[in-house]
Amino acid sequence: MNAVAKPRAVDHWRDQHITLAHGAGGRAMRELIEEVIVPAFDNGLLAPLEDQARIAGSLLGHGESLAFTTDSFVVSPLRFPGGDIGRLAVCGTVNDLAVGGAVPKHLSCALILEEGLPVETLREVLASMARAAEEAGVSIVTGDTKVVERGAADGLFITTAGIGAIPAGRDTGPRMVRPGDKLIVNGTLGDHGIAVMAARNDLALQIPVQSDAAPLNGLVEAMFAAAPGLRWLRDATRGGLATITNEFAREGRFGIVLDEAAIPVADAVRGACEILGFDILYLANEGKLAALVPAEEADGLLAAMRSHPLGRNAAVVGEVHAERPGLVTMRSRFGGERVVDLLLGEQLPRIC
Amino acid sequence: MKFVDEFRDPSTAKALLREVTACLDQLGATEQNPVQVMEVCGGHTHSIFRYALKDLVPKSLEFVHGPGCPVCVLPMGRVDDCIAIAQRPEVIFTTFGDAMRVPGSKLSLLQARANGADVRMVYSPLDALSLAQQHPDREVVFFGLGFETTMPSTAMTVLEAKRRGLKNFSLFCNHITIVPTIKAVLDSPGMRIDGFIGPGHVAMVTGSAPFRFIAERYHRPLVISGFEPNDILQSLWMVLRQLLEKRPRVENQYARLVDPDGNRVGMQAIAEVFELREFFEWRGLGSIDHSGVRMRAPYAAFDAERKFTVPNAKIADPKSCQCGEVIKGVLKPQQCKVFGKACTPRTPLGALMVSSEGACAAYYQYSTHAVEEVA
Q1: Are both A54 and A187 inside the same structural domain?
Q2: In Å, what is the CA distance from A120 to each residue of A13, A17, A157, B52?
Q3: Domain check: are A185 and A308 in the same one?
Q4: pLDDT digits (tens, 9 = 90+) for A221-275
Q5: Does one domain contain both A98 and A197?
Q6: A 118-157 residues inside an 8 A Cβ radius of B
Q7: Among residues B279, B278, B271, which one has the least CA distance to residue B299?
Q8: What ipTM goes with this model?
Q9: A2 pLDDT more than 50
Q10: Is B153 on the interface with A (CB under 8 A)?
Q11: Pairwise CB contact (< 8 Å): A336 & B52
Q12: With an 8 Å Cβ cutoff, is A285 touching chain B?
C-alpha cells in the first residue's frame, strides 16, 4: 500500500477545516470520504463504498477460529513523541487480536470529528493509520464518519474494530497456566504513559521518551513459532503490568511474584517516575505484552523475542506460584516483598 | 541510576541491618517489648512499606506511623469548605492532584468536578497564578495544603500575586505545622514512643532548631532523615545508638539536603505571609493549639476564607474510626476494627486510609501480611 503520498496528487480538496456539512450526508461528506479518507487507506475492499465490506471466500482455514475485537481512542494530545491517535487506533486493535493468538486481517475505522478540526490534521492521522496498517499487514476495509459541533468532542476520536484468524491448535487462557510458568515482557515499560504526559506538558519536564506504540502481531507469530506451549498473552496497555498480572492471577487463581530488578525500564522513564512519584508498574504501554510460558520453553522464547526488533529488551520478570492465589507480589531490588494491587481510584486520563 | 541507586544498595542495607539488630539486642528489646520508633512524615511511611523495611528489621523494632501526611489529616469540614468554594460558578478551583480524592462529608473534589465544578489539577501554585491572568473574569482559588515543606512556595505565590497586582487570585489556606502535633502526640496518655525519625523536607525549610524540645523536654532522640531506604535504616541506627548512649539529641542524617539553620528565604516568606492560628482541627487527632497557619491581615485580599463565605462546619470523624490510636502507636493499622472492611483505600473512613502516604493505606496496599490477616 503506497497510499500515503497518493491522495494529495489526485484530489482537489480545498476546505481547510471540518464543518458540520462534512457529516451531513450530502455532497461535502461524500467529497471528504472519497477524496480524503478512501485514498488514504486505498484498498479494493473499501473502494466500493458500500455500507459493509464484502469479503469473498472463507476467512478461516480448517480448524481456525475467528477473533473479533473493538477499541476506542480519545488520546490527548492527538500527536505525541513516537506516535499519534491514528497509530494507536490501528496498533491497539491489532494487538488485542494478536495477544489472543490471532493473525489480524481486517480493521474498521469509525471517526468522530469535531467541527473546526484542521483537515491537514485529519490527513496526517489517516496517513499514520495507513502506515501502521501496512506495518501490521492489515487493511482498513470499512468505516464511518460523523461530525459533532465544536466542544462536543476534542478534535478527533477514533473507534476501530478488527477481525483475525486464530490458527488451529493455538489455545491460550487462564486455565492453561501452571505453577512454575515464567512471565516475560518484550521490553521497557512505561514509555507510552510518560511520553503522552510529557507531550501534554502536564509535567513541565523535558523527558526524552518516545511512545512505544507498535503492532505486535509479527512478534507474537515469532513467539508462537519459538514456544508453541505459550499459555497466556496480554498487552499491557492502561493500568500497565500491575493490572494485567493481577488479571492473570485473579482469573487463573494462582500467585505471581515479580522481580523488580529484572523489569526493563528506560532511564528517562525511571527518572520521571522518581521525580513525580509514579509507579512504573501502573504506567500505560502501547507496544508491550506480557506472556506466561512453561519454564522449559522460556529460554528459547526469550532468544526468539530478542532477535525481533520489538523484543530486543525482552526479559523474564516473574514466576507463577500455587501459593497465595489471586495475589501479585514483587521482590524489591532491596530484598523485601510487597503486594502489587490493582490501581486505586482514577487513572491519569486520556492516555489512549 | 545516579543519585538513586547508591541510596538503595542492598549490601549497604545489610550492613545497616546488622548494626540495627545489634543495637536492639543490647537494648534488650523483644517482640513482646519492642522499641517503638515513630516516623513523623508520610513520605517515610511510604518508603518503609514500598521497600518492605518493616519486614526486614527485627521484630523487636516497631515502626509507629506518625501524623505527617497533610492530605490525610485534613478534616472533612475543610474539604466541604473547599467544595463550597469550588461550586461557585465564578471560581476556578486549583489543587495538587493528591487532594482530589480526599472525601468530604458528601463529596470529594473529584466528584464535585464530575458534578460540574471547575476543579483543575496543577503541579505548582504558580500555574494557578497563570490561570488567574488568563481568566481575568474568573476567580482562581489555590488550595494551599501541607507542612512547612510546601509553605514557602505558597507564600512566594501570594507575594508574586501581590506584585503583579492580581485581583482575582486567592488562597484557601490549610497549611499546618508539625511541631505542635508531635508535642500533642508526646503529651497524650498511653504514648509509648521511644524515638523519632524526623521529617527531612520540613527540616530543609525550618532547620533543626524547632525539634530540639523533643530531646530537651521529652528526652527522646530525633534523627532528621532522608527518604531512600538506606537513609531510613541509617537514621534508625542513629536513633538506637542514642537510646544506648542514653543521650537524646537532634541529629541530622539528611545533611546532603538539610542545613541545620534551614532555608532563610523560605522562612522569611512564610513569616511575611502567614501567622499561627489559635488552633486547627486535625482529622483523627482533633483540635491542636497553634498547629495551623492563616494569612496575615495585609494579605487579606488574597485570602479565600475572607473573600468567600464557607460553611465552616465541624464534622466529627466516624465513631468506628481509630486513627488517633494508630497515630499514637497504641494500635497497629490492621488492629483497627474497620481496617480492610468498612475502611479501604476505595472507601476511606479514616484519615490514614485517605492518601498513599497514610499508614493504613500503605499497609493495605503493600503489606502481604495485612492482606492475609484480613482475607
Answers
A1: no
A2: 11, 8, 16, 52
A3: yes
A4: 999 999 999 999 999 998 999 999 999 999 988 999 999 999 999 999 999 888 8
A5: no
A6: none
A7: B271
A8: 0.79
A9: no
A10: no
A11: yes
A12: no
